[in-house]
Amino acid sequence: MLLGPAVLGLAWPKAQSVLLPTDVLGPLRDLGHAGLVLFLVGVAHELRLDASRLRDRAVAWTALGTFVPSLLVGAALGGWLVWLDRPSLRGTAPTGAFVLLVALALAVSAVPVLARVLADRGLTATRAGRLSLTSAALVDAVAWLLLAVVIAIATPGSKGAWTAATVLAVGALAAALGRRLLRTPPAERLCARWPWPVAVVLGLWVLLAADAAESLGLTAIFGAFVVGLMIPPESPHWDAPVRRVSTLGLWLVPVFFIATGLRIWTASGGIPWLVAILATALAVLAKVGGGYAVSRLGGEGHAAALRVAVLLNTRGLTEIVLLQAGYSAGVLTSGLYLALLVTAVVTTSMTGPLLSLIDRRHGTEATSAPRENEPIALG
């Protein structure tokens, strides 16, 4: 997003027109968009919101503690931007959609990045790791659904919240029925015997679902999200096809960022640094403060509560995709997009150094794999 239009453009102003002429940009955007939805199937599948995990009271409390304060602070930031009424920041989107999208941008956590951080640091089986990852999955599931509401409200000609509510209900029913069907022995045997053809069919299915979601006035992300939730999380046979589809999407995601960067930097007059700094400060304060407070109330020690709070402050690709969906729907201006992009990058980049600081001051957390069906009790 930076190198092409920003850095390369300074050294060679005609670089975009020479390297990426107008007739190439359209297919480039389509290819990047396809890569994004394919990648998000794996993200939704990795949420793994099965009933056994959601029975842990600590997960619900931690998710609320990190989601609600961030959502309220983000809504306050969105309200302030509406009151400020600067066209470069506010745009012309409906107020409800605008405020809710800004709130979601501050409230999300990035499950893929968080999972990789936990794996790299050997924290996956620790109490803080399990608690933060499952809470982040719950938060992101709610955020993706609310994003569909935002897009429906902002889409001209749609029936707004009624359309969103109907499609969300149908999507939830389809995900539940699809998961039950794919869990049957014939489907499992088919997947185990022909994983590559199943992966091809799954990829086509995702693209069709994404296109259907867009035709209904929602974001294509919602279609990918529903298909990802259909895949049984406990089945080892489905992991391989999902991983192949998601890996193909991951290879194409850089194309998505190239196309986005060209569009954003061309339309933007630069980064509004005051808004970027304010949004980042509020995001860190709400997410870290809320996560720490609830963890302490739940009986966690000082160091463990800090780890949970810092881990949940990771926003990464989840926020960037949410911002892109909002920008494409006309909810965000290019200037506000860049300001919130700074928030996503800063809050993600600070996770590693803060975890290292906690380890130096309080020692590393011992890995303790939980017994089967052992709950994480609150208090």
TrEMBL record:
Q: Main localisation, per the record?
A: membrane
Q: Provide the membrane topology annotation.
A: Multi-pass membrane protein
UniProt keyword annotation of Transmembrane helix present = yes
Q: Which InterPro entries match?
A: Cation/H_exchanger_TM, CPA2_transporter, Na+/solute_symporter_sf
> Which gene underlies this protein?
gerN_5
- A molecular-function term among this protein's GO annotations: antiporter activity
* Name of the protein: Na(+)/H(+)-K(+) antiporter GerN
* Species in which this protein is naturally found: Streptomyces hundungensis
- GO BP term, pick one: proton transmembrane transport
Q: Which residues form the Cation/H+ exchanger transmembrane domain?
A: 2-355
